[in-house]
Task: inverse folding
């Protein structure tokens, strides 16, 4: 997606060969016009796939996922990174290890909000090692929902996430693919 590519190159900050900082427009401060364009792009790309729900993991995926759900006119489900203290019955749970933060968390999905009739689109901000998306797919499979695809804003193509997801049979669409990062340098993968 050209608009997101331009934003990443203009405002993204490569901290090192693994970390890209996008806090000025995606995950700390959110550019709503960009999020709307992202949502419209995902909706157009996955049009005709019979999607009944959009799913994301809190918190950085919420803005683009809500715009995608709005463009598709379907509900958005947000997977939580910790179980609720009051609403913990009927949850599907799995453990996920975050590449960026280097810690593990318990990802949860309220079982009453998903069914085997649902055909979902997973939206996430980054794809690195594929752990978050794999955790989301585990939860959705526990609920017997089917997965139409995985939409990623920014993919670090030099890391194994895409291959890991595709080996499991999932279709991955990334709006921006990064070939290489180095301190102060971002190189995009062009088709």
Result:
């Amino acid at each position: 997606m050209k608009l997101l590519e331009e934003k990443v190159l203009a405002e993204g900050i490569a901290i090192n060969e693994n970390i890209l900082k996008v806090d000025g427009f995606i995950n700390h401060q959110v550019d709503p016009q960009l999020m709307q364009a992202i949502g419209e792009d995902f909706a157009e790309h996955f049009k005709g796939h019979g999607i009944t729900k959009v799913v994301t993991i809190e918190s950085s995926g919420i803005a683009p996922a809500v715009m995608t759900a709005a463009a598709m006119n379907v509900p958005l489900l947000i997977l939580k990174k910790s179980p609720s203290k009051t609403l913990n019955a009927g949850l599907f749970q799995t453990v996920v290890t975050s590449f960026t933060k280097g810690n593990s968390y318990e990802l949860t999905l309220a079982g009453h909000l998903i069914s085997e009739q649902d055909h979902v689109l997973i939206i996430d901000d980054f794809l690195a090692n594929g752990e978050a998306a794999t955790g989301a797919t585990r939860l959705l499979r526990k609920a017997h929902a089917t997965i139409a695809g995985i939409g990623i804003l920014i993919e670090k193509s030099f890391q194994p996430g895409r291959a890991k997801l595709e080996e499991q049979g999932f279709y991955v669409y990334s709006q921006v693919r990064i070939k290489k990062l180095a301190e102060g340098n971002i190189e995009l993968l062009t088709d």
About this structure: DSSP finds six helices and ten strands in the chain. The first helix runs from residue 2 to 11. The helical segments are 2-11, 23-27, 32-45, 62-72, 131-142, 161-167. The chain has a mean pLDDT of 92.
